[in-house]
Amino acid sequence: MPTVNLAERNLDQLESNWGAKYPKVIESWRKNWPRLSSYFQYNKDVRRIMYTTNIIEGFHRQLRAVTKSKGAFQSEDALMKLLFLVQENICAKWNKPVHYWNQTLAQLSIIFSDRLKLNL
């Protein structure tokens, strides 16, 4: 699992390889490093949940693929019906439980106690 030290070493390597050509990019990364590296403060179970944003991106990509392949829609209602059917097909595939969800939820409730209220 990646660590903050490994990420910092990779950032140093990125700077040595590309810093002369793209100094503003490296400067931006350095300036925002505390925010960018905050990900590493969480344990592996919480990080795994953070990876699920790829699911959202994939969902949007599948919706775009369907709408892009159509030239035009007869009406907004036709578009909405198509999007509804596509999302039904996409969501039907989401049947896998999240691994270690109980441990992850416990960690999230500790980290975000002010925002996450559990009724246990």
TrEMBL record:
GO terms for molecular function: DNA binding; transposase activity. Belongs to the transposase mutator family. It comes from the Bacteria. Keywords: DNA recombination, DNA-binding, Transposable element, Transposition. It comes from Chitinophaga polysaccharea. The keyword DNA-binding applies. Required for the transposition of the insertion element. GO terms for biological process: DNA transposition. It holds the Pfam family Transposase_mut. This is Mutator family transposase. InterPro entries: Transposase_mutator.
